[in-house]
């Protein structure tokens, strides 16, 4: 099953693609073919699935989700 995930843009959009980091710190290149909105810029958050950027994500919601995931990871390590 594929699942949409949050990503932060780490490189400029070029040739219909953009470089991103996912929440696990993996660097990926995703296609902008299905992206809704103006081309993302470095530091923007977006939702991607199966190698395609789909839509921009609200920065405060993305940061809150990241914080919560890190807190869960910390609890699991204990």
Write the layout of secondary structure elements.
Elements: E1 5-9, E2 17-22, E3 27-31, E4 45-49, E5 52-57, H1 59-77
Antiparallel strand pairs: 1-2, 1-4, 2-3, 4-5
State the separation between the terminal residues, measured CA to CA.
29 Å
Q: Regarding quaternary structure, how should these chains be classified?
A: single chain
The overall pLDDT, averaged over residues, is 89
The name CATH uses for the topology is SH3 type barrels
CATH architecture: Roll
Catalogue the unreliable spans.
Answer: none
Rough outline = elongated
Strand and helix order: EEEEEH
Number of helices: 1
CA-based gyration radius = 13 Å
Q: Tell how many strands the DSSP assignment holds.
A: 5
**CATH class, anyone?**
Mainly Beta
- Amount of helix: 10-25%
* Major beta sheet summary: 5 strands, antiparallel
Domain module count: 1
Q: What is the beta-strand fraction? A: 25-35%
Strand order, main sheet: write it out: 3-2-1-4-5
Structural class: alpha+beta
Descriptors:
78 residues, five-stranded antiparallel β-sheet, 5 strands, 35% strand, SH3 type barrels, single chain, alpha+beta
Describe the structure.
The protein is of the alpha+beta class and 78 residues long. It has one domain: SH3 type barrels. The protein is built from one helix and five strands, in the order E-E-E-E-E-H. It has a five-stranded antiparallel sheet. The longest helix has 19 residues. The radius of gyration is 13 Å and the shape is elongated. The termini are far apart.
């Amino acid at each position: 099953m594929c699942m949409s995930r949050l990503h932060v843009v780490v490189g400029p959009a070029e040739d219909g693609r953009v470089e991103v980091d996912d929440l696990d710190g993996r660097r990926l290149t995703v296609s902008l073919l299905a992206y809704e909105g103006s081309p993302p810029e470095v530091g923007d958050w977006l939702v991607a699935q199966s190698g395609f950027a789909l839509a921009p994500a609200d920065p405060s919601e993305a940061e809150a989700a990241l914080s919560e995931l890190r807190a869960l990871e910390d609890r699991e390590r204990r």
